[in-house]
């Protein structure tokens, strides 16, 4: 029986993960280009490296056994202000862990309206799974993540999907959305936090219209009645 190349979540620090992480880094950098003014948050699993952006607006959190380390040492809920971040990048932040709903809920809370969530995970349908099988990691298909995002409040119909990394060769760090790309090692989902429009003042306008109509009817009735019986 084939043994895993490296056990535990530390698999991402090994050579088999290099091409996948390189493709993910380029994808994250493209996301950050779209949020030039707001701060952003990166959350990664063991061995993942946050994007080498020159911006100092990034907050970096690494998963630990007891919570999160990096720029902050904390647990959920995060000590971060609501609706502040332009992007949240989750790079294998769930692999081998069961706090999907709580973590996505925090992402929804801290994202500014129109902010972008980018989520990367392993592709369970890729031949590359033989390289991380029995390494203490977990993988889910796009349908699982789309349902999880919808439960957290993200718009289910606005999720874009991309496949990243190698199909089998260690030096293949490509990406794409075609049929052949569905065999790549990783998947990445991107979704924006929906902007809720204000409630239009329709009820007020309707009430004013009804009031005016009622007054007009009363006035018309008074005119029909005339000045009263002649003497």
UniProtKB/TrEMBL annotation:
Keyword vocabulary terms for this entry: Methyltransferase, Transferase
Gene Ontology biological process terms in this record: methylation
Superkingdom to which the source organism belongs: Bacteria
Gene Ontology molecular function terms on file: methyltransferase activity
Name the record gives this protein: Class I SAM-dependent methyltransferase
Organism: Marilutibacter alkalisoli
